Amino acid sequence: MMALMQGGTLLQIVTVAYLGCFVYFSVRLSLSDIRQHRLPNRQVLAWVLSSVPFLLAFGFLTGNYQAWLFALLGALLLGGAYLLLSLLGRGAMGMGDVKLATVLGLNLGYFSLAALALATVLAFVSASLVVLAGVLLGRLTLRSRVPFGPFMILGAVLALGVTP
Fold this sequence. Notes:
Blueprint lengths: L1 H4 L3 H28 L4 H22 L3 H23 L6 H17 L1 H24 L12 H14 L2
Helix pairs in contact: 2-3, 3-5, 4-5, 5-6, 5-7, 6-7
């Protein structure tokens, strides 16, 4: 992500617009998940449809066409992993999380598969720490429903910020 900011003026403009889009959907979906324990299909689909033109523009402006394949691979890997967790977890993870994982996989995969792996680890670690603290403070039980979308987004943002 940092390399894009060092490119030409058009690339910088596209990067800033992309980051604005990323932040907009991150905040909107996080608030929805926190308030309603839902990640609405329309918002997730809108994020996918907004991301694709940016990722295509990055490829054209940088000449890194191979990154498009990594974006698709990231979407398949992360979306597939979350789908498996959803099916095996007996309702512990919802389908909204699966769809969000797919869009995050698309975005993270474009930049690096290392960012995708790091984001996943950060999401699970941060959620575990919050749940553990909640249990220790008596505000949560081991059966409490905790929205996972904000942790997925937090992990993605942190991973994009620290991976090359």
